Amino acid sequence: MDQDFSALINNYFQHDYRDRGIKKWRGFFLSDHTSALRKMDQDNVYSEKKLPKMTTDKIFHNAMHALANYYTVTIQLDETNFNHETKKNISGFIENMSDNYIYIENRKLAVQDIRALIINR
Question: According to the lineage, what is the superkingdom (predicted)?
């Protein structure tokens, strides 16, 4: 009897069962998770006009000037998405700086990853 049941189960999974893949897991996603996935997808689709590449010295100079005078800045990272489009710019006040990093909007950005830093007046 156990062998017949085992054979029946094996036959079912080998010939009749159709895995629904990701569809069966969608019900387990939390609303916060799905909204984060949507936002991530929007950020990846969004494309900015490429700004001219700046030297690290010019980036530091602009960042120090903006930090000292409480100006907002717009930072464009030197990264692209899978379609070679520029990601969304980051705007706000510079919170802090170090030799290798700029802190803005609760983010730590490596200076080497920044394409341009423009001061907004």
Answer: Bacteria
